[in-house]
Design brief:
With 407 residues, the protein is mostly helical. 73% of the residues lie in helices and 0% in strands. The protein has 2 domains: 84 residues, no CATH class; 299 residues, no CATH class.
Length: 407
């Protein structure tokens, strides 16, 4: 990887920075990265575009559009891309590491405390039950927000509904998502017969696997019904990589994939999974940092490191490998239609996962009316209060309400 700075541009240029100074600049961004990707991108725009002139506003806007079309946490990918702009590919690596390390370290510490605290029977269980109710509201809001951006026409709605129905019936996302992207891409190009053929082929493959006709692929047919072997670092790395490659439209889109590879393998409970999501909302970090918690609960420090590396690898890789090509690739209309269909399929999967998590939370609460009340109040706040710290406040409210109402 070359450490040479990018050539000067008329629409802004980063100032000369040493690699340690570049890392420290983005580490500071990471330490203040509360409020999710919108707030994180706004902070980077204010500091690097408006104040320091690293890049022109128009080019920055186009860059954001490119990052949103790719899988992975867009604020992190943006940092990697700007780091490359400043000091070449080593600059991209250090900028990305600087941005993610504060949240990673904090989540690792919280996960370590979580597995050592006597949560059950010590009052803390009520706190986490309240957090779980608030997290359900967060996911509801995320599904709505992501769907509002992704489901722009009736075909995308149909794709999301079909994908969700297929997932509900037990079809694997390895079949559902490629079929969704390919079918929508063909339909958008006017090739309706080809789109219908893709749907029929995917349905036939699901039925064949379910009937045992492809024994080697049977594990891909849907959620595992029985616990698998103990969690390993390699398996958790693959789980994180799946999530990183399929995170379209926000961190919550990684939920169904990570849950399928951890909860449904018996490596943790739905309650613990929801606790990790709740804690991630409190931290200055990309929201996908919840996987660090998941990996630690499943397999300790090696599991946390492995799943986090898998999740963030695509966010580094796309910019590091395709820095000069990203805008040209995204401008390909055929690819954009396929990505839109893929994103719509992910919306359907998140909706199904939301139902599963809500059922698990309802089964674990000692007072369903109280949990429903916490979730309802959290949802109202999220819809009415448009502040970057609203998710953090909602999680805190859920914890306090749980301590009072769910003992």
């Amino acid at each position: 990887m070359s450490a040479a700075p990018a050539p000067a541009r008329a629409d802004g240029q980063p100032p000369p920075l040493s690699l340690p100074a570049l890392f420290w600049r983005f580490f500071q961004f990471g330490a203040l990265a509360f409020g999710g990707p919108v707030a994180q991108i706004a902070m980077i725009r204010r500091e690097l575009v408006e104040q320091d002139g690293w890049i022109g506003s128009g080019r920055f806007n186009r860059l954001i559009a490119v990052m949103q079309a790719l899988p992975g946490p867009e604020a992190h990918e943006l940092c990697v891309h700007l780091g490359i702009r400043a000091r070449g590919r080593w600059g991209g690596v250090l900028a990305g590491l600087g941005f993610m390390l504060p949240g990673f370290g904090l989540m690792l510490a919280l996960a370590w405390l979580y597995v050592r605290l006597p949560i059950r029977g010590a009052g803390l269980d009520a706190v986490f039950l309240g957090v779980q109710a608030a997290v359900i509201a967060l996911i509801v809001r995320a599904v709505h927000r992501i769907g509002a951006h992704v489901l722009a026409d009736r075909w995308l709605w149909a794709t999301a509904i079909a994908a969700g129905t297929a997932a509900w019936l037990g079809a694997s996302f390895w079949i559902v998502l490629p079929a969704a992207g390919l079918a929508h891409g063909l339909a958008a190009a006017g090739r309706r017969v080809g789109a219908a053929a893709v749907v029929v082929l995917a349905l036939g493959l699901v039925l064949l696997i379910a009937a045992g006709g492809l024994a080697g692929l049977h594990e891909l047919a849907g959620p595992m019904a029985t616990p698998a072997a103990p969690a390993s670092a390699a398996a958790l790395f693959i789980a994180g990589l799946k999530g990183g490659l399929l995170t379209f439209g926000g961190a919550y889109t990684a939920i169904p994939f990570v849950r399928a590879d951890t909860v449904q393998r018996g490596w943790m409970s739905d309650g613990q999974f929801l606790d990790g999501l709740g804690l991630s909302g409190l931290l200055p970090a990309p929201l996908v940092i919840f996987v660090t918690f998941v990996g630690f609960v499943a397999a300790g420090l090696p599991g946390a490191l492995a799943i986090t590396a898998g999740m963030f690898l695509p966010a580094f890789g796309f910019s590091l490998l395709f820095y000069e090509r990203l805008e040209q690739v995204v401008e390909d209309g055929r690819l954009s239609h396929g990505l839109a269909g893929l994103a719509a399929g992910v919306v359907g999967l998140i909706a199904v996962t939301l139902i599963d998590l809500a059922r698990a939370a309802a089964a674990g609460t000692p007072s369903l009316p109280a949990s429903l009340g916490i979730g309802a109040v959290a949802a109202v706040l999220l819809y009415r209060w448009k502040h970057r710290l609203a998710p953090l406040a909602v999680v805190g409210l859920g914890a306090a309400a749980g301590a009072l109402l769910l003992r």
